[in-house]
Amino acid sequence: MSVFAGIDLGGTHTRFAVMADGAFVLSEKYVTTDLMAAGPKLAGVIARYREVADRAGRKPQAVGIGLPATLDADRRVVLSAPNVDGLDGLDVVSLLEGAFGVPVVAERDVNFQFFHDMKASGRTPRVALGVYIGTGVGNAVWINGFYTGAHGSAAELGHIPVPGATGVCGCGKVGCLETVCCGRWLKGWQERNAPDTPIADIFARHGDHPDIRNFVETAAMSVATAVNIIDPELVFLGGGVLEMPAFPFETLKTRLLAHARAPFPRDVLEVRLASNLGDSGARGACLYVAGKFGTVQ
């Protein structure tokens, strides 16, 4: 029996998944702050993983962990994790391999979510793009494998500068895409302009407002920028914002294609809505290490 485990350490929740002989047999969710409060150097995550592995009934052969962070070029050391205290500068791979006794692969959380979406689609194209708009903007690039750049910091669409934007981003820069096109911006708009509207109903009730229409157009132009640079075969668009009721996905797709270079990639580009499984990041981590260290049935 081949057994692999995935961990998706998010800013709010941490999810664990176990896959045996190609089938997912276990998925559990915990509050990240509780795990991080259990001790330094991921002590809570390590303890919970051991409990999950025990319940699975067999020790996994390898573990993938997705992190809400930028990693070094070797994909071992956390360079910056602004939403989870205690990770900056940590050699996660050495730490977890020592604790688990098996190979560990670390990646940005969005990369494993994106990998799950590709596998679920039945395709692993040569070039693909993923953009996930939630609290912030997650971005993944696949060019015969995850494209991570010269220093490990590639695929940061959320931090491209937007002309006229003046907000301060969580990264410390001014005018990043994340300051005008993410769930955090929508929440601020709702508080200022529609305080009686639940945030989940913003698109259903205010989708025709010029600010909300501009939000969708900004998203389309930004994704099209990445499309025109890397010429992908397949694009996944997802995240919590796109899962909100009445989000105009078809409008986003149409406007994206309107900005894409013609005839290619526009005329052949496949644009799909990403999965909304809560544990897709942990599942993607399982699938990735299974492909690297074993087989996927």
The top level CATH class name of the largest domain: Alpha Beta
The CATH architecture name of the largest domain reads 2-Layer Sandwich
Q: How many distinct helices? A: 9
Average of the residue pLDDT scores: 94
- Percentage of β-strand residues: 15-25%
Oligomer: single chain
Shape: globular
- Count of separate structural domains: 2
- Major sheet summary line: 5 strands, mixed
CATH fold descriptor of the largest domain: Nucleotidyltransferase, domain 5
Count of individual beta strands: 11
- For the termini, the CA-CA separation is 11 Å
- CATH-assigned homologous superfamily of the largest domain: ATPase, nucleotide binding domain
Helix content: 25-40%
Order of strands, main sheet, comes to 3-2-1-4-7
Class by helix and strand content?
alpha/beta
Written overview of the protein:
- Strands 3-2-1-4-7 form a five-stranded mixed sheet. A four-stranded mixed sheet has the order 9-8-10-11, sandwiched between helices.
- It has two domains: 3-112 and 278-293, Nucleotidyltransferase, domain 5; 123-273, Nucleotidyltransferase, domain 5 (2-Layer Sandwich).
- The chain is globular, with a radius of gyration of 19 Å.
- It has nine helices and eleven strands.
- By secondary structure, it is of the alpha/beta class.
- One of its GO terms (molecular function) is hexokinase activity.
